[in-house]
Design brief:
By secondary structure, the protein is an alpha+beta fold. It has 19 helices and 13 strands. The chain folds into three domains: about 100 residues, 2-Layer Sandwich (Alpha-Beta Plaits), CATH 3.30.70; about 200 residues, no CATH class; about 110 residues, no CATH class. Bound molecules: flavin-adenine dinucleotide and iron/sulfur cluster (2 copies).
């Protein structure tokens, strides 16, 4: 009956039907409620073009550009510095292949675990653990994958540390560049074509990215090739590359020197300090924790410069699309203060392939089986949306006229309750040394 209603709407207005369908897809109702493939209907009747995908839904994954046989899709930046597709009408042959591969328009479904096994873990290599964002599970999985003659694909900073993009790696040197979280959007232009070239030539690849990038990879291949292994992470949301660039630019001006290295979540003051560390070519260093660094305040506390669609992310659910999901095991019980300060990863095994990947590195890691509920207590963004700050627009308007830190200071406001909570937390941290959680 529901299908007939949709068809009726569809005959009245094809465009409206596309919009309704997109709503159904983004709400995840398609597979639950509708028995017939709505995609078939849309393919037949749709006049939707890729640049019709709303700014509030497009993830900027850039699959549409990589799949286009005529290179007719280019990406412009909006005023917030996020990428959105534009069609070059002179090249477009209206084949609609981009629409068919867009992971937002089409529901990406996989047959992964509904009750994934959950582990807390960290690498036994202390140096790698210190250098990693949480417990270093990514490094160990990727290292073993390289040793087994595979390739890795992940996010790397540009040479000037002012942007990031997805690259392919084959060596430990490449891995050293790819490891570590960069908390702003990575440019995936061209990565899907490179993945396909490797898979087509019989190579194995371990891809790591945001859950929406993993959805994009699956959508690009219209499935998951046997030799493609997928990792994602718990993702709160992705930040504006423009905001990040402005932040780095301001630091370079302040320190009167070029940036040599950036490290987010430096552990000098402990994992939970979320400190940002920047090294300059004149030898000076910037190291500030979550309560004093304007980037971390604007992101973790403020949600001031997150991509618009992240507020209604389709991927904060189970089953996950990746083989393994990694993240920070915030608030874990029963670990020593020392282990907590050094970083603990949470690991979700979502598929048979994921199980095998973790088994391959179990001799290099400390692993403990944990309950799913334990993760949610300290890491709500596994399932919950992160709403944007009410002053998000003010931030981006201000950023045009003033340095990054000033724009954050102007836009970032806390309620009295939030302020009290923050100060109590700082106070307790300074006076208490925990032995057990
Ligand atoms: C934007 C963002 C938001 C996150 N939000 C949360 C959260 O809310 N809760 C939580 O528990 N964990 C979150 N994480 C994950 C967390 O920061 C760690 O990456 C994770 O715990 C794995 O740590 P690790 O030490 O094993 O791996 P790492 O050494 O950190 O390596 C992680 C992998 O992530 C890839 N990566 C890094 N930056 C990006 C990027 N910008 N885009 C795409 N891929 C990237 C790298 O290529 C690498 O393959 C987030 C990560 C990012 C990048
Ligand atoms: S394929 Fe990706 S970038 Fe292109 S419209 Fe869809 S979500 Fe946006
Ligand atoms: S919150 Fe969702 S949509 Fe936003 S970057 Fe993360 S996975 Fe993608």
């Amino acid at each position: 009956m529901y299908d007939s209603i949709i068809y009726l709407f569809g005959f009245c207005s094809v465009l409206t039907a596309s919009k309704i369908r997109r709503k159904i897809v983004t709400k995840g109702w398609e597979s639950k409620v509708f028995k017939i493939p709505i995609n078939a209907f849309v393919e037949r009747w749709s006049i939707i073009m890729i640049d019709d995908v709303k700014q509030t839904e497009c993830t900027g994954c850039k699959v549409c550009a990589d799949i286009c046989p005529k290179e007719a899709i280019v990406f412009g930046e909006n005023k917030e510095g996020f990428w959105y597709p534009q069609i070059d009408e002179s090249r477009c042959i209206k084949c609609n292949i981009c629409v068919k591969h867009c992971p937002v328009i089409n529901n990406v479904i996989v047959d992964n675990n509904l009750n994934p096994d959950v582990y807390a873990g960290w690498t036994l290599n202390n140096h790698i653990r210190y250098e990693s964002t949480s417990g270093g599970v990514y490094y160990e999985l990727a290292k073993k994958f390289l040793e087994d003659n595979g390739y890795i694909a992940g996010c790397a900073f540009s040479d000037d540390y002012k942007s990031a993009k997805h690259v392919i790696g084959k060596t430990t040197e490449d891995l050293n560049v790819i490891m570590g979280s960069k908390y702003f959007q990575s440019d995936t232009n061209g990565i899907y074509i490179k993945l396909k070239a490797l898979i087509d030539s019989g190579e194995k690849v371990l891809f790591c990215g945001t859950p929406c990038q993993v959805a994009a990879v699956i959508s690009f291949f219209q499935g998951i090739p046997d030799d493609l292994f997928l990792l994602d992470f718990i993702c709160k949301g992705i930040n504006s590359p423009l905001a990040y660039k402005a932040y780095m630019h301001e630091l370079e001006e302040k320190y009167r020197s070029k940036i040599l290295k950036v490290r987010m979540k430096n552990k000098k003051y402990g994992w939970e300090s979320l400190a940002t560390h920047v090294i300059f070519s004149n030898g000076k260093e910037y190291l500030k924790d979550r309560y004093n660094d304007w980037w971390i305040l604007g992101y973790t506390c403020g949600n001031l410069f997150m991509r618009e669609n992240c507020q209604r992310c389709q991927h904060k659910k189970i089953p996950r699309l990746s083989d393994i999901t990694i993240g920070d095991f915030w608030g874990i019980n029963g670990c020593s203060q020392k282990d907590y300060e050094e970083g603990i990863s949470v690991i979700f095994i979502n598929s048979k392939k994921g199980k095998k990947l973790l088994e391959n590195v179990q001799d290099r890691m400390h692993l403990e089986s944990r309950k799913f509920e334990d993760v949610l207590k300290g890491n709500p963004y596994f399932m919950e949306q992160a709403p944007a700050h009410k002053n998000r627009e003010l931030f981006f308007t201000s950023l045009k006229e003033m340095p990054f830190s000033k724009a954050v200071r102007l836009s970032y406001t806390e309620s009295t309750v939030q302020k009290c909570k923050r100060w109590i937390k700082i106070f307790l941290k300074r006076i208490c040394k925990r032995k057990k959680w």
